[in-house]
Amino acid sequence: MSILTQLETRSGVQCELCKASDSLSVYAVPPNTLESLDTTLLVCATCRNQIEHPDQLDANHWRCLNDSMWSQEPPVQVMAWRLLHRLIAEGWPKDLLDMLYLDDETLAWAQATGDHLSDDDKVIHRDSNGVVLSAGDTVTLIKDLTVKGANFTAKRGTAVRGISLVADNAEHIEGRVNGQQIVILTQFVKKS
């Protein structure tokens, strides 16, 4: 049975956010990219467009979250939580968020994209030249670095591919050098 068929069965062939019944499609809730029943929801074209283009949010459309936030399905709960946070300046979403309860695992999933953070609170990783780094980028070391505990020196000019960002520290990234996963200070790298 396909994911679409399973989602149609779960939702009664309605958008799981606004209950519309036309132009329905499968939406994988980020950061998940694999489509499974536990990581996707069925959404209409209107909801999908506004989710993917936050600058086009219509606050009145999202009053439907008053009902859909009570869904027992984690992907629906996650999207309701994220959308309420995007709309928090409207006032009424704050009241709904105060009532919404998510278990620890679902809340961690909801917070994973950082949508709920203000621009001042977001951790932004920058290289030695001030260029913003993203997960998966390739960086080059600009200085020889002694790797503590691994007994080797990462040489200047070494390319570190597929970096990952340390979520709570803007000055740290992780990458693989000489087969070892190490933490690197952003001040010693430049984006390639």
Give structural attributes.
single chain, 192 residues, alpha+beta, three-stranded antiparallel beta sheet, 6 helices
Written overview of the protein:
The strands form 4 sheets. The protein has a 3-stranded antiparallel sheet, with no helix packed on it. It has a 3-stranded antiparallel sheet with strand order 7-8-9, with no helix packed on it. The protein is α+β, with helices and mostly antiparallel strands and 192 residues long. The mean pLDDT is 89. A hairpin with a 4-residue loop joins strand 4 and strand 5. It has helices at 3-11, 45-52, 65-68, 74-86, 92-99, 104-111; strands at residues 25-28, 40-43, 139-141, 145-147, 152-154, 159-160, 164-165, 172-177, 180-185, 189-191.
Helix content: 25-40%
Overall geometry comes to elongated
**Helix count?**
6
Q: Please give the order of strands in the largest beta sheet.
A: 6-3-10
Mean pLDDT: 89
Q: From the helix content, strand content and strand pairing, which structural class follows?
A: alpha+beta
Terminal Cα separation, in Å?
Answer: 44 Å
**Could you state the order of secondary-structure elements as H and E?**
HEEHHHHHEEEEEEEE
Low-pLDDT regions: none
Largest sheet entry:
3 strands, antiparallel
Strand content: 15-25%
Topology, number of strands: 10
Radius of gyration (CA) equals 21 Å
Give a nutshell description of this structure.
It contains 6 helices and 10 strands; from the N terminus they run αββαααααββββββββ.
